[in-house]
Each structure stands twice: as C-alpha cells, then as structure tokens.
Amino acid sequence: MDLARSQSGFSLGFNSHDTSPGPIPLQLLNGEKENDDDDDQNEQLSFLGHQLCLKRKRDGQRSSCPPNSPNRAAVQVGLDSRQATVRGWGNQALAVADPEVYEMMEKENERQFKGIELIASENFVCRAVMEALGNRLTNKYSEGYPGARCYTGNQFIDQIESLCCNRALAAFGLDSDKWGVNVQPYSCSSANFAVYTGLLLPGDRIMGLDSPSGGHLSHGYYIPGGKKVSASSIFFESLSYRVDPLTGCIDYDKMEEKAVDFRPKILICGGSSYPREWDYARFRKVADKIAAVLMCDMAHISGLVAAKESANPFDYYDIVTSTTHKSLRGPRGGIIFYRKGPKSRPPDMLPSLSDGNGHYDFEERINFAIHPLLQGGPHNNHIAALAIALKQLASPDYKTNMKQVKRNAQALAAALLRRRCRLVTGGTENHLLVWDITSLGLTGKNFEKVCEMCHITLNKSTVFGDNGAICRGGVRIASC
Ligand SMILES: Cc1ncc(COP(=O)(O)O)c(C=O)c1O
C-alpha cells in the first residue's frame, strides 16, 4: 500500500525511497492544504529505510502563509470553533453537561446523607477514594499485569497496581514470598468465578454454604427446585452445606459428612449473612481429609480481619477472596489472595493443582483466569482507589472504626434481645445480625418496605423456620 498517496489526501509522511515524489503533509484542517511551500520546510528523517516527514511546529514558528491571507484566516476560524467545541464538552461540569443525571445523583447523595443506612454489604468511602475513582485513570487501557501489558503507556499504571498489591499484602500481614494477590477483579463474584475457572475443569465439584443459610450465590447455589441462579452452579457441580435450623450456626459435623461423600475439589467458607465467627481450623481439617483446596470468601468481614477484630483466615486457607467495598471501605471490586512458593502443608493436595514440585501453582492459573480468560482491561481508577483504602487499613483510626462497628452491632443485638426479639444464632460476633421476625407475623419483604418509608435502609433475609423449612421472615441489619 502506498501510504503517501491516499485518496483522502491524509498522509503520515511515510514514503518509500524510489517511487514517491515526496511526502504529502498530514492534513487536519478540512482537507485544506496550508501552503504548497510547506513541503520545502518539512524535516526529513530516515526510519527503517523509509523517509519520514516531520511536520513543522504549528504556532509561533515560521510560516510561509502570509498573516493576512484569506486562506489563513479561514483556517483559523475553523480551528477556533473546533477548539471551542472540544473545550465545551471536555470541561463542562456534570451539572451543565447532563443535568438529568446530575439531579438523580444529587438526590442519591441526599438519601444517603439523611437516611439511616443499615445494609450489611455497604459502606461510605472517603473523599480520597472518590477522587481516585473520578479521574483520568479511567481513560487508560492496561490489559495484562505490571511489566507485561498489551498496550504501551502504562508506566504509571504499573506503579499504581504494584503499590496496590503491596499494600494489600501488608494490610493482612502477608509475606510476599508466601502469598500473592490479584487486585483486578471487577467484583467478588467474578473473583470467585476466576478461582474456579483457573483451578478446575467445567463440571468439577465445589461446596459452599447454602444461600438460605447465609451463603452467597457465587459459591454454587441453585434453588431447591434445581434452577441454577449463578454461573458457578451452571459450569460447576455444587452441593451446599447448611446451618443447623435450630441454632442457626453451621452444622460442622454434617458439613464434614457431606464433604466426605461429595468430595468437592474446592471447599468454600464465607457468607453474606452469617453473624458468627467461622471455625477455620475445622474447615482445614475437612479439606485435608478430602484433599480439597480450601477457599475463604471473607467479603463481609475483610475489614474486621484487617483490623484483627475477626479471626484470621490466612492462617488456614489456600485462597482468600473478598469484596473491596464492604467493611474494607474501598471502591467496588474484588480481590484474590493465593498461596505461592513451596507448600507448607503435607503434599496431599490434588496433584492437578500443584506444579509437581511441591509448589503452589495458583498464581499463574488465577492470574490467567482473570486476564485473559474472564476479564479485559482492569479498572485502573478502582485499583488506585483500592490502594488508598488499603493504606487506611493500617491506620489507628480504621482499627477504632472497626471496633466501634462491632460494638454497634452488639448494642443493637442486645437492645433487640431485651425486647424479646429473636435473632438468628442468638446474637452477633461481627458487624451484622439477622432478626427473625416470623414470630411477629411479619415478612422481611414488608418490613424492609416500611423501613424504607421511614428512611431506614436494610434488607430482607431468609431464615429457617421452627420446622426447618426456609422462610422469608428475616431482616439483615448491619452497622458498617
Ligand atoms: C460473601 C460474598 N461473596 C461475594 C459477594 C459478591 O460481591 P460482588 O457484588 O462484588 O460481586 C458478596 C456480595 O454481597 C458476598 O456477600
């Protein structure tokens, strides 16, 4: 192709030696050529055997076009109007650019400010996190990982992502020789799915806490009729363990029995509305017995874990995932921690999940699952915002806040118990509680609606009735 002779008159000034009469200058101004004399003033450069034409600087430099020529004036007018247009949309405040969206956002601001927000999975991010979310980092494409991206121009993005990873490890006191982290997941559901995708084959088995017991859909849940409501249950075979309907606490003996029969390749702990500590050591024992990979989804409690206000899953688990926007108080997203280096446990893990040399091989599999298997370019603004949130985890203020969050939940639980309200598991050891309102003849759906009318935001939750059947008579309340 002869780039120098395009029909449009557009040229990169890229010429082949012998045939071309000379480079045609780059035309940006409505196809008008400034002046034929320009050619004489183009600097020539040779690159890979081709002549490159460098265009003269535009302003304040030599011009062969007389200042008062009509041609030049017309060009200037066109340029000015285009620049004004770009400045117009480029610099407009949101309220001017899109009053409709602005107004809706203002109303949401007001709702959050005036109401009482008690949704367990939400939090309030700080100003610095919001600043990081709304800026030019959103413009950049960075598929890949620091030092190995698909596009150039990522030198600062690399620094931000590496800093974020280092801070994530530091926030949970992890040794970088033994743990790695991926901060790119767009959400925790995608983080969980990436773990399964990276470590398993379609149809392999996973086992997590039943959703009506307080587990999360992304741990393989399907509803009792068999309808699969999560990709994790469509692409992998799953069987859930449950809480004891009477106590509301996980029935660990039954969990072990089911796990031994079902033999999942990944055993998952963690949930969305479980108000008690998890017996991590017991999970480890069961996982070792069936040679399963042990994964903890600490989405709700990761902030408490970082502040040492909850037991530490990292002592027992092979893989730990989390949301970054719940108790962690960061931007919306997910995170995956995985063990790396030599295995610290007896080599009874599935052979297919190790590199055959007694080393964990999660790093390559999980990173590859996130990109390129499941995601495209990372959301760099979110990663920067996460780095900021993770820095705050180390501050004494954050620890104080997490302590208070727990105290608030306990105070609310105590107040409800004094009024003879029934709480699932009889109380709470973290930031949330589940109030069983069936004995009051109420449903969670109606209760949450009435609360919403009173500007109190909480959410309905399933609970087990006295007969062990699932019913919708619960509400989840939290103090984050
Ligand atoms: C335990 C648990 N895992 C995963 C998720 C999913 O998080 P995301 O909304 O980021 O996909 C949640 C969200 O509520 C959760 O509670």
TrEMBL record:
Positions of region (Disordered): 1-42
Role, per record: Interconversion of serine and glycine. Catalyzes the interconversion of serine and glycine.
Pfam family, one: SHMT
InterPro entries assigned: PyrdxlP-dep_Trfase, PyrdxlP-dep_Trfase_major, PyrdxlP-dep_Trfase_small, Ser_HO-MeTrfase, Ser_HO-MeTrfase-like, Ser_HO-MeTrfase_PLP_BS, SHMT-like_dom
Biased composition (Polar residues): 1-19
PROSITE patterns, per the entry: SHMT
GO molecular function list: glycine hydroxymethyltransferase activity; pyridoxal phosphate binding
Any GO BP: glycine biosynthetic process from serine
Reaction(s) catalysed (UniProt annotation): (6R)-5,10-methylene-5,6,7,8-tetrahydrofolate + glycine + H2O = (6S)-5,6,7,8-tetrahydrofolate + L-serine
Family to which this protein belongs: Belongs to the SHMT family.
Pathways per UniProt: One-carbon metabolism; tetrahydrofolate interconversion
Keyword set, alphabetical order: One-carbon metabolism, Pyridoxal phosphate, Transferase
E.C. designation(s): 2.1.2.1
Cofactor(s) this protein cannot do without: pyridoxal 5'-phosphate
Class of enzymatic activity (EC top level): transferase
Name of protein: Serine hydroxymethyltransferase
Domain of life: Eukaryota
Serine hydroxymethyltransferase-like domain mapped to chain residues: 95-478
Biological source species: Erythroxylum novogranatense
One cellular-component annotation, GO: mitochondrion
Modified residues (N6-(pyridoxal phosphate)lysine): K326
